[in-house]
Amino acid sequence: MIHIVTALPCEARPILDYYELAPLQQGGHFRIYGNEHCTLIVSGIGKLAAAAACEYLGALQASQRGAWLNIGIAGHRDYHIGDAFLAHRITDHTQQQDWHPSIIFDPPCPTEHMISVDTAETSYTRPALYEMEAAGFYASAIRFSPAELVHCYKVISDNASSPTDRISPRQVEALIQDKIPQITSIIATLQQLSEELNAIHQDPD
Known about the structure:
The protein is an alpha/beta fold and 205 residues long. It has one domain: 3-Layer(aba) Sandwich (Rossmann fold), CATH 3.40.50.1580. It is built from 5 helices and 10 strands. The protein has helices at residues 9-19, 47-60, 134-141, 169-178, 180-202, and strands at 2-6, 22-23, 31-34, 38-42, 67-75, 84-92, 97-99, 111-116, 129-131, 150-158. Strands 1, 2, 3, 4, 5, 6, 7, 8, 9 and 10 form a 10-stranded mixed beta sheet that branches. Strand 3 (31-34) and strand 4 (38-42) form a beta hairpin. The chain starts with a strand and ends with a helix.
């Protein structure tokens, strides 16, 4: 089982379509979709919203121990729009707290440092990806699964030449859609890794 967290419906839509995820509940604060192999929750923007979504989904899916993946957009001063990365370091900009995701597989994309900020970044002062959910997601999700199964994947949506005020939901959806091959590769790897780690946990001999 893999649990996916996106901030925005436009980030979720290509994934919902590809995996044919159906609504799992009506009403409530969060929109949740899923099938027998995957659940996806739309958290809303910000690290507090992402953390709350993880807590909610983790409690709802308590019997479905598995991998967690945060998928979304990020900005960087120099990277091209559409470049994509997994996080090898996550920093909460406000709290100045760091996490270092454990990547024990060969990722299909480069890795980068991600900084979670409270408002959209426009100056890109550090050579890192700026986004708004990873710190809240990661701090919450590692309460439910081992660090090896918790990861953040971001697609560049803005840079110094194309700032955040030019981003539209349609563009975000297209960026995620273009990365479906990478996303599905990461998900397949995490699902296999989850099965292997769970088998070891259940049968240590």
